[in-house]
TrEMBL record:
Single Gene Ontology BP annotation: L-methionine salvage from methylthioadenosine
Similarity-based family: Belongs to the eIF-2B alpha/beta/delta subunits family.
Domain of life: Eukaryota
Pfam families found in the cross-reference section: IF-2B
Record organism: Trieres chinensis
GO MF annotation terms: S-methyl-5-thioribose-1-phosphate isomerase activity
Name assigned to this protein: Uncharacterized protein
Lineage: Eukaryota, Sar, Stramenopiles, Ochrophyta, Bacillariophyta
InterPro entries for this protein: IF-2B-related, M1Pi_N, NagB/RpiA_transferase-like
C-alpha cells in the first residue's frame, strides 16, 4: 500500500505542479510563452531515488512538463559536501532526455 501510495503521490505532484506553473505563466505572460520553453531549478536529488518509487517529487513536475514538450531545461543545484544529489538527479533527467545543467550552489546566485 505504501509503494502504491508513493507512486500515486509522485504522479499527482507532477500533474498538479505542471498545472500550477502553467497557470502562473499564463497569468503573468498571457500568450507570450517563454521562447525555448520553461526553465526550472531544483536542489539536490528530487527524482526516483528520493521517493519509494515513481518519478520523484520535483522531478515529477519537470518530467510532466517535458512530456508536454514545454520544458526548456532544468538547472540542478549541487548539494554539499559531495554533490551526489545533483549527480543523481542529472543522471535521472538524462535518462528521460530532459535537458539539464548541474551547477555548484555558489554559482547559482
Amino acid at each position: 500500500i505504501t509503494l502504491r501510495r508513493d507512486v500515486s503521490s509522485c504522479h499527482s505532484i507532477g500533474k498538479r505542479g505542471a498545472e500550477v506553473i502553467l497557470a502562473d505563466v499564463a497569468d503573468r505572460r498571457g500568450d507570450d510563452f517563454p521562447e525555448g520553453g520553461l526553465r526550472l531549478m531544483t536542489l539536490g536529488n528530487t527524482g526516483r531515488l528520493s521517493a519509494a518509487w515513481g518519478e520523484g517529487t520535483a522531478l515529477s513536475v519537470a518530467s510532466e512538463l517535458n512530456k508536454r514538450k514545454i520544458l526548456g531545461g532544468v538547472t540542478v543545484l549541487e548539494t554539499r559536501p559531495y554533490g551526489q544529489g545533483s549527480r543523481i538527479a542529472a543522471t535521472e533527467m538524462a535518462l528521460e532526455n530532459m535537458p539539464n545543467t548541474a551547477v555548484a550552489v555558489d554559482g547559482a546566485s
